[in-house]
Design goal:
The complex is a heterodimer of chains A (114) and B (150). With 114 residues, chain A is an alpha/beta fold. Chain A is built from four helices and seven strands. Chain B is an alpha+beta fold. In chain B, strand 2 and strand 3 form a beta hairpin. Chains A and B meet through helix 2 and helix 3 of A and helix 1, helix 2 and helix 4 of B.
Chain lengths: 114, 150
């Protein structure tokens, strides 16, 4: 369900599900909290397989953002039009930054995270 | 366009949403723009998942009925359950929900829940919840923009 890879100072969590919803949101929160707890500060959530997200899952993404260190980064990549619309409607698009793919998210993080 | 109406009764489980979305896609007029289509999918999901998570919290065998009605004027979605009705405080939250600009809120103070009702109010033209005779109905209406005549 959650595929985790670490490269350099950045951990990428790919969600291998079609829906990021209330059914898997608790598990997602635990996975991200565990990454943050062991000291990793830069997390990319790869949503390329996600077709749909609900507000409970959006809350889980906010939880992920809050779990990283204050100087850490938590960004999204691979979001489809529905996920982007969700960020826009909830006015979260400046809080949960979203990049087209993992490469561009990594590039953005290297710019700020060193 | 002709009026179109579809209704489906589904097990109160999150995975049933895919079927509800297929019904919506089948009923929406072909000329519906992507933004409106996506917004309606999101609202249907919020209404449906709310029934699964709250109305049927104590009754996993519940059934949620979804009705989709489309006409030239717009789309009406109804999510109907026979579970626990929303209490007064929740109905007031539904009626008064808004989406605030989140960009100035310190990270640690960002809310991790409670956005669903705000999404409905932000996207839809009308949201109404009624409960009578053991049936709870969440009615969500989106009116189409009038098309300019040549």
């Amino acid at each position: 369900m959650f595929h985790e890879t670490k490269s350099g100072e950045i951990v990428t969590v790919r969600v291998d599900s079609q829906q990021l919803n209330a059914a898997i949101a608790p598990q997602f929160k635990e996975v991200v909290a565990a990454i943050a707890k062991r000291g990793d500060r830069n997390i990319i959530v790869d949503l390329q397989h996600i077709e749909f997200i609900d507000s409970t899952a959006l809350g889980a993404l906010v939880s992920g953002l809050k779990s990283v260190a204050p100087d850490g980064h938590f960004t999204l990549c691979g979001a489809n039009a529905t996920v982007e619309a969700m960020l826009q409607i909830t006015r979260m698009e400046r809080i949960l930054r979203s990049y087209p793919d993992e490469a561009s998210a990594r590039e953005a993080l290297h710019g700020v995270a060193g | 366009m002709d009026e179109r109406l579809a209704s489906v009764s589904l097990p109160a489980r999150y995975e049933s949403l895919k079927v509800a979305h297929r019904i919506l896609a089948a009923i929406l007029p072909d000329e519906t723009g992507d933004e409106v289509r996506i917004h309606l999918e999101i609202c249907l999901a919020e209404g449906f998942n709310n029934a699964v998570a709250h109305a049927y919290r104590e009754a996993p065998d519940g059934v949620v009925e979804v009705r989709v009605h489309a006409s030239a004027e717009g789309v009406r979605l109804e999510v109907i359950d026979a579970g626990t009705p929303m209490d007064e405080a929740t109905r007031t939250r539904l009626d008064e929900a808004t989406i605030q600009d989140q960009s100035e809120i310190p990270r640690e103070q960002l809310a991790e829940s409670g956005r669903g009702f705000g999404i409905l109010q932000a996207v839809l033209d009308d949201v109404a919840y009624t409960s009578a005779n053991g049936k709870n109905v969440l009615r969500m209406t989106k009116r189409f923009e009038p098309v300019a005549q040549d």
